Every structure is written in structure tokens, then in C-alpha cells.
Amino acid sequence: xxxxxxxxxxxxxxxxxxxxxxxAEALLQWIRESSANKAEFDLVKRLWSDTVDAAMxxxxxxxxxxxxxxxxxxxxxxxxxxxxxxxxxxIAASVLLIVSAYYFFNRPVETVWHETLASNANKQxxxxxGTVITLRKGGKLLLxxxxxxxxxxxxxxGEAYFEIIHDSQRPFLITTPRCVIQDxxxxxxxxxSGSTEQVTVLEGEVSFISKDKKGQELRLxxxxxxxxxxxxLQRRVVETANLLSxxxxxxxxxxxxxxxxxxxxxxxxxxxxxxxDDLRSVHITAQFKNEPLEQxxxxxxxxxxxxxxxxxxxxxxxxx
Length: 320
Hints:
Elements: H1 4-15, H2 21-33, H3 35-57, H4 61-73, H5 85-106, E1 113-117, E2 123-126, E3 132-135, E4 140-144, E5 152-157, E6 159-163, E7 172-175, E8 179-183, E9 187-192, E10 196-203, E11 205-210, E12 217-221, E13 224-229, E14 232-237, H6 245-248, E15 250-257, H7 258-269, E16 272-274, E17 283-289, H8 293-304, E18 307-311, E19 314-318
Parallel strand pairs: 5-7, 16-19
Antiparallel strand pairs: 1-4, 2-3, 3-6, 4-5, 6-9, 7-8, 8-11, 9-10, 10-13, 11-12, 13-14, 15-17, 18-19
Helix pairs in contact: 1-2, 2-3, 3-4, 4-5
């Protein structure tokens, strides 16, 4: 568990609305460990709340501390002798002064984020620590201005391939709208499309943590994938041969079922493939390097004798 000083820091960041999802989960676990921890958090939270209210509404300080006194002592009357309210006010004020001073001198500096867009093509980003990120067309990556000085983190919308230089003292954290991913010496692909988020590990190991209330976590190794869909985190085995086709501009099929070929075509060409069930078991062996969809379909027709027709943004596969 985190040290007491770490918990104090996280507690103050949480009360100020600046805690990360991982920090919030650590604080929740600490509170659940004992009734004493919960009581300590509740006390600090009440003091914090009353102080903020006083600052915002210009409340009378003496009345405010009378309120704090009533809230923090009322439930303890059976086990302690109450101090005169002015003495309790002084004690509470001292506690608040310490807490406020701690936060003032240890408060985090507001992070300035720089945005990178892959608007018209894939974009490769090389970071100061040697990490290389390939952002897929249409994706967005945000990096802090002070990246690498004390921590390494990034925010991602869309799809990107990370080749991370591992540093156990400064783990690399990637935040998506619904998850937190931490590298443990690895290369991996992150995909998020709003309702579904997926991480696939090609080398090393990754920690994949959901931001939901359950805080689900999976440790993934090379060749493994995790999918978060409808608030359920699942481990899956995925076909990785063409997972990075958008990066390499190469599609490779080696006795591959047509059902998998259809998925790879959908991902690479951003189309919807309509494939009858009775054709899913047809196998394909072929390789395509940076070829337009029309040329790929002509060659697939020659290999299989099947019909491949483009209708709008859909590809319909059928028998002659």
C-alpha cells in the first residue's frame, strides 16, 4: 500500500479535483482498509469543505469553526471530554493551517498539454526518452509540456502503436477516455472507438486498467489482447498478422479463413464487409503491399472465383 505521505498527497489532490483515476482507486483502497482510515479521510474532507465554503461565501470564520466543531465532536461525546468550543476551534484551525500549508507548498503545477493530430496521414512521434509512437490517421495524442522530467504520460484518442523505452522509475502511462494503460517493458497497440477500447501486446507486458467504479485490471503479455466493451473487461486471443497493416501498408494472408480476411479488409480500408456464413471457411494465401482496394478485390476474385462488389461504403462477397 502507498506510504502515509503519499496518501496525504493523493487525498489533497482528490479533494481539489486533481487526482488521476489510478490515484483515486489507491485512495479508495486505503479508506477501505480500516475504520480509522475512513474517519481520518472524513475529518479532512469536512475541514476542506467548510474552508472552501467560507472562502466562497465570505462566511464568519468563528461560526464556520463552530460548525466544524459540532460535526467532528458530536459523535465522540461518549468517549472523550469535550474541550471548550474556542479551544476546539483553535485545534481545528491549527489542523487546517497545516493541511492548507502542505497543499500550498506541495500542490501540483497545472499541466500544459500539447496536441498532435494525424489529420491526413499516419504520424510518427519520437519522444525525448527514445519512445516511438505511430499515430494512425484520424487519431489525436496529447503530451505534457514537461514530459519525461518527473513522469511519462500521454492521452490518446483513436489508434496508436507504442514502442516504449522501459523505465521502472518512470512508468509510461497512457490515458484513454475509459482506461489507463501502463507499460511494463513493451510494444503494444491501443485502439479506442468510443464504446470499445482494446489493447494488444506485441512485445513485453502491459497493465490495462478500466476507469469504471470496479477498477478492473488485466496484465497482458505478448500475443494477448484485452477488450473493454459495455463496462466489461475481457482477455482475448487475436490474430496479429495484420494488426499493424495501417502502419506497414502490407496485408499478409497465409491460408487465412475468409472471415479473418474480411475483418482485416474492414480495418485497413475502413469499409463494412458483408460475408455469407457459407463462405467464411474459404481460405486465402496472398500478400498485398500498398495496393488500392479495387486491385486487391480483382486479385481475390482470381484466387477464389468469388464476386467482390463495392456498394457505397460496403463490400459484398458472394458466389458467382
